[in-house]
Amino acid sequence: MKNSKTIAIIFTLMIFLWNCTERIEVEVDSSFTRLVVEGYVTTDTAAHWVRLSTTSDYFYNQPAPAVRGATLSIDDGDEIHMLTESDTLPGVYFTSPGYYGIPGKTYTLNIRNIDIDGDGEIEEYSASSVLNPVNPIDSITLRYFNAFHYTGYEIQVYAWDSPRKDWYAFKVHKNGKLITDTLYELIVQNDDFFNGNYTYGIASQFLSNDKPDEVVKIGDTITFEINGIPEEYYYYIIEAQSQIFPQTPLFSGPPANIRTNMNNDAIGFFVAYALNRSSTIATADVVDGGIPQ
């Protein structure tokens, strides 16, 4: 009898607590609109691009609003190069196809003829980046690995590092297509551990068999690209990646704002860098460790 009363009391409490739940609507205030800039200049002869968009509210579930009709130019101290707005890619502005950067120069992006905050006043934005040189790569090799059910390839790089302080970004192309094309796949590295030395096959990028576009087959051409980036861009990437991955500890405080080299309250980054590439062809003794599949 006593047990029956106890069960009845617990059951009544459960119903009471269940019925006391209340839906709470969290209201997130809108913030002021800011310009978002992503762009670059490299030593490659190519049509370089700058993308302009704006910030949006927290619950905005559409692509970032593109900024159209802006006037963009890049000034290298000797000449000013005008960019052309794309007809097919909203908010993207291109240099001419024959444009390229020169190591040692400072490149300044100027953005004009836009009203981001909608107050009727035309605004101007700018950012500057020094184009640092980068040493050439002697060669690369592919090494198959199989560890803890994780298989893939590490790209080993043979090259001299300059005696100056350097910061690098590492990318990979497969058969001419960039496959490390997202922010979290980009590896950045300073030269603290090999400054001024030769890197005898240092592992610099990785390809995973778990990702379909990174699976390597016999005859594939794998190209490793090294970018000699500025120090501030190195830390920009580190900070941006830290906000992509889970925070430790789990209930950490809110992340700090990511740095930018844009002025006038704009966010994002405009960067200039030198690059160098080296390629290798995947052979039968490397693919899947040389084991026939």
Please provide a written account of the structure.
This protein is mainly β and 293 residues long. The protein has helices spanning 2-19, 231-244, and strands at residues 35-42, 49-54, 71-75, 80-82, 84-85, 92-94, 106-114, 123-130, 137-147, 150-160, 167-174, 177-178, 187-190, 198-208, 221-229, 267-281. The strands form three sheets. Strands 1, 2, 5, 6, 11, 12, 13, 15 and 16 form a nine-stranded mixed beta sheet that branches. The protein has a four-stranded antiparallel beta sheet with strand order 4-3-7-8, with no helix packed on it. Strands 9-10-14 form a three-stranded antiparallel beta sheet, with no helix packed on it. The radius of gyration is 25 Å and the shape is globular. The model has no long low-confidence stretch (mean pLDDT 88).
List the defining traits of the structure above.
293 residues, mainly beta, Immunoglobulin-like, 2 domains, 9-stranded mixed sheet, 4-stranded antiparallel sheet, 2 helices, globular
Ranges with pLDDT <50 over ≥5 residues? none
Q: How are helices and strands ordered from N to C?
A: HEEEEEEEEEEEEEEEHE
Query: In terms of structural class, how would the helical and strand content be classed?
Result: mainly beta
Beta content comes to 35-45%
Write a short abstract of this structure.
By secondary structure, the protein is mainly beta.
